[in-house]
Amino acid sequence: MGRYRVRVDTGNFVFAASANQVQLWLVGHHSEAKLGLWFHPARGQMEDFEVDLKEDLGPLLFVKLQKIHLLLKDAWFCNHITVWVSEKNMEEEQEILFPCYRWVQGDGIICLPVATGKETWMMEKEVQGLFQKHREEELEERRRLYRWNTWRKGLPLTVDAMTEKDLPLDMRFHEDKKIDFVGAEVTGLMEVVLKRLSTLLSSWNSLDDFAQIVWGHQKRVCESWKDDDFFGYQFLNGANPTMLRRSTSLPTRLVIPPGAEELQTQLERKLQEGCLFEADFSLLDGIQPNVIQGERQYLAAPLVMFKMEPDGKLLPMVIQLQPPCSGSPVPPLFLPSDPSLTWLLAKIWVKNSDLQLHELQAHLLKTHLMAEVFAVATMRCLSGMHPIFKLLVPHFRYTMEINTRARTSLISEGGIFDQVTNTGGGGHLDILRRATACLTYRSLCLPNDLADRGLLGIPSALYVHDVLRLWDIIFRYVQGIVHLHYSGDKDVQDDSELQAWCREITEIGLGGAQDRGFPVSFKSRAELCHFLTMCIFTSSAQHSAVSQGQQDWYTWVPNAPDTMRQPPPTTKDVTLEMVMATMPKVYQSCLQIAMTWLLSRVQPNRVLLGYPKEEYFSGPESKAVLSRFQEDLDILEREIVARNEGLDLPYEYLLPSRIENSITI
Ligand SMILES: CCCCC/C=C\C/C=C\C/C=C\C/C=C\C/C=C\CCC(=O)O
Ligand SMILES: [Fe+2]
ipTM of the predicted structure? Predict the structure, then answer.
């Protein structure tokens, strides 16, 4: 018995309030009590109530709530419920948090377990038994609501939703986000720019013509895009820093034709010095090019070799646009000493290929689609009171919806890829299948990936420096939460929900990816922390690194054209007419600019890494871990700002103040 002060906190979203009345119960270890509280939750409001109870409830375990439907049935977004208990034997009132953070729909009774703190989670078996029944019922409902779907064979599984309207309400964009996204997509640039310009020009006459449609601060790209050091810089710190690797031998595909012995000598010398690098786009070899408005497009599968100069500049040494093919002449090698237009066209072909693998492999597959697999498995396998659910779920905000929109508008039949890229029309799906088939766990774990690519210890590799710092900061945060809730490796091994989650990702979501290094179980806290760090890193920092550069580097279309309308050159005789006939038409160029603007713009009302809106954990220990995470991010912010001050080209995509907590665009 005692006095109970109850606070009901309603979300501040449009439509978060409810016209229905709500009934509450308090459920303790010994008994439960129905509170005679009928109230109408108001948007963004905290409503307080006070009741004196005669029953001895014992330690509180749940709050139960039920929306009473009379005439109107709406959805109420409940943030959380807080209860302050003051009883005779207590020196001070005890504050207890019951997180919700979801839409309450229908008139069923919803159980909100007490927030997980170290003591709750480690609670003796008997009480866990009470929770056990709740958790099983909750997961049964979640598995009904969140189902896997095979959108296309050979790709990671997705959530089962034809359009965003089929998604569970808790995964939908809130009203402000939806209005912003749809507004930017439909009425902003697309219609205005496309309609006006596509009537003026059907194709370009000179490379400078592209300046008619460029805007923003891409001036530097317009001025420098033809320079070799600017070309090389992009493989270190541009829109796609995932292709470069240090050469350990001369690539077998690089057949040196007679008469090019000097080149062979230079390559071998750089190899010996350990400063030979490569970017190999063989994944594109044999992909069927698109046909856009009846006009055939063309694809290449280039290889470019670089040398790293002592001053940190990465300079291209040779470009091979197609791999050798038996029965065909040895493919020509393009050199910086070739006629300027010839060398420029070879670099443009490399950047067209880079845009395809960047957007499909690095951006869509290795961040968006991977985060969706983690999100669906989390909703299907981890109950709401599980500490790993509470750690991860803020990092999946809006991801199912943005990915579902990608499947209906971007990579769908007739979607953006079909309209503007030379991999569209089905080739883009084959690239996604090939990329999925070679997607390894190590390639998602950045310290492993960067070591495997030989990219450690390069002063001019700013992306590398910043991702390694972020990986360590996220790892420390994850380790803090895991060690609070798992006292040793055996706790991890014995956690059935957690082990099921791991198997669901590897065996189901990724279609049996254990042969690519993904785990089917966690044997230790260390293994668990590594995997969880990868999940959070993928959903925040890595997405930021491969998304934010789109506008900077792709708005000047010649720097990375989205399609190519003529075959790759096979001789050194290249004219301006050939280059212009190869470049995208006005429509494709405008759509490239509109899309890359849409997909890399700063999201209004974004939630930053480390600053989740939800408060799932309770207790001072969890709060301390989160505070330290925020301090670490703040230190890194200041480090990067200071470093950038001394740079001709600042690298800002991994400033913590620009990293969203989840993939929302
Ligand atoms: C040259 C244009 C390239 C566009 C970017 C290509 C791939 C981006 C990779 C991942 C993006 C993930 C999700 C985007 C989701 C929705 C955006 C799709 C279409 C919006 C415009 C529209 O609806 O028509
Ligand atoms: Fe994205």
Answer: 0.96
